[in-house]
Amino acid sequence: MLTIYIKDNCPQCHATMRWLRERDIPFDSINISDPSNAKQLAWLRARGIKQTPYVVAAGESWSGFRPDKLSKLLE
């Protein structure tokens, strides 16, 4: 399963989700701008992650809109 940590008003987050939807790739998104997701935000901060989207998929993770990495999910 693919999980994306996103923030409100994040163009790269929207681009990543649009790319996945256009290819019918299922994903879960966690909006770290939502106060109810404070634990997930703390988890990201503890790992030094400062950029969204933060994508976790197939044992790999990265920040930002990365079509090159996303394309590897289709292989």
From TrEMBL:
<dbReference type="InterPro" id="IPR036249">
    <property type="entry name" value="Thioredoxin-like_sf"/>
</dbReference>
<dbReference type="Pfam" id="PF00462">
    <property type="entry name" value="Glutaredoxin"/>
</dbReference>
<dbReference type="InterPro" id="IPR002109">
    <property type="entry name" value="Glutaredoxin"/>
</dbReference>
<protein>
    <submittedName>
        <fullName>Glutaredoxin-like protein</fullName>
    </submittedName>
</protein>
<feature type="domain" description="Glutaredoxin">
    <location>
        <begin position="3"/>
        <end position="61"/>
    </location>
</feature>
